[in-house]
Design a protein that fits this description.
- The protein has helices at 76-85, 87-104, 127-141, and strands at residues 5-9, 21-28, 33-38, 43-46, 51-52, 60-63, 68-75, 107-111, 118-124, 171-174, 177-180.
- By secondary structure, it is an alpha+beta fold.
- The strands form three sheets. Strands 4-3-2-1-5 form a five-stranded antiparallel β-sheet, with no helix packed on it. Strands 6-7-9-8 form a four-stranded antiparallel β-sheet.
- It has one domain (5-149, 168-180).
- A hairpin with a 4-residue loop joins strand 2 (21-28) and strand 3.
């Protein structure tokens, strides 16, 4: 499952799918659609307008009955800058990821799909080990300036002021640029 990017579905006519998280397998040029796999394992082909590529750091996408977990970490540019400007820190991060794998008995991979704006960490293993590793992930990343929130526990409630409906617009900041997702709208055709 590494090499796939996390996405959120939006603006679909099948409204029950809007707001769901998925991993993106790639783009099918012939169909002009993204091939995505939902958390329940169901595959879908969706248009570019229906895929939100930027997720909040700490967003979890749980796959394969809990044995694979994609955790959105942040912008790829942060990793690229670390690799280019601070090679020692980059190598230390790689060693820390390897040590984390052994300590928590899960496979841990930095996941940076080509051309994608964000990277994630993919945890693979026994579901209980994966969840234990997820709880420890923020502490492992913190020394590298990669801060993410801890996992949300099922049943956690957010204050009403923080709840956002799946259909509502999301605002995300990426490298100083603020983007607001909106429902797809039909554009009037040009008459010549």
């Amino acid at each position: 499952m590494a090499g796939m990017a996390g996405v959120r579905l939006r603006g679909l006519q099948a409204t029950h799918l809007n707001g769901l998280l998925a991993v993106c397998k790639g783009f099918d040029e012939d169909k002009g659609r993204w091939e995505v796999v939902l958390e329940n394992g169901e595959a879908k082909a969706v248009k570019n307008d229906n895929v939100l590529q930027v997720l909040e750091p700490g967003t979890d996408i749980l796959m394969q009955n809990g044995s694979v977990l994609h955790v959105t970490i942040g912008r790829v540019s942060v990793l690229n800058q670390m690799e280019q400007e601070d090679r020692e820190t980059w190598e230390l991060l790689q060693k820390e990821v390897d040590q984390f794998s052994m300590t928590h008995e899960v496979r841990t991979e930095l996941n940076c799909p080509d051309g994608w704006p964000q990277f994630s960490i993919v945890l693979t293993g026994d579901p209980s080990s994966v969840m234990g590793a997820r709880k420890a992930l923020p502490e492992m990343l913190k020394p590298f300036g990669l801060e993410i929130p801890g996992p949300k526990v099922k049943g956690d409630t957010e204050p009403e002021a923080n709840k956002v409906e799946a259909e509502a617009a999301e605002t995300v900041e990426v490298e100083g640029l603020v983007m607001k997702s909106m429902e797809r709208r039909e554009r009037p055709s040009r008459k010549r």
